[in-house]
Amino acid sequence: AGLGEFRIRDLNDEINKLLREKGHWEFRIKELGGPDYARIGPKMLDHEGKEVPGNRGYKYFGAAKDLPGVRELFEKEPLPPPRKTRAELMKAIDAEYYGYRDEDDGILEPLEQEHEKKVIAEAVEKWKMEREARLARGEEEEEEEVNIYAVNDDDSDEEGGKEKEGEEGQQKFIAHVPVPSQQEIEEALVRRKKMELLQKYASETLMAQSEEAKTLLGL
């Protein structure tokens, strides 16, 4: 340590130069068929030479490890802060985190109402322009009002509607579309299952022949 900083650095550089030259000779001996001294040779102890993290290959020996700027490189980095567990993270999650209290400040709701009015006005204006364009082209506009809640007995009979009456005092339910029977539903399920099995196990050739036979039979 009494040699001085510059002399210590020069000696440390000379040692690393000799170590690199030694490594080159060991590699050359191995190329010529000799023993692999890098693998079977004596190993250097940690206290004899120490590498700086991130600077692979260059070692510091003796007093060189205490030189200014080098000592700090060997100091251990502080441990990272411990990671919070899932339970600790969940403690800070409440209704506000999921946005349930966004309207409490009284700012968001008026903005949404204003935007809603603007969108509705634009939609109405667009509809009026399209309506005027249709009238200009001479297209007649059908404005017949249809009561979708009105029930016509004749229409219900033609469409196969079925009226289900319960006990006295209960509400009546009317089906406005044909309701399949239990047998029809079972037959449809069987046909669907057959098609799934054919698609899963039948070859493409067999499927093509089947479709051709159905076409010839008019099915």
UniProtKB/TrEMBL annotation:
Biased composition (Basic and acidic residues): 159-170
Gene3D superfamilies: Helix hairpin bin
Subcellular localization: Nucleus
Principal subcellular localization: nucleus
Origin: domain of life: Eukaryota
Sorted UniProt keywords: Nucleus
GO-annotated cellular components: nucleus
Similarity comment: family membership: Belongs to the ISY1 family.
Protein name according to UniProt: ISY1 factor
Lineage, opening ranks: Eukaryota, Metazoa, Chordata, Craniata, Vertebrata
Gene: Isy1
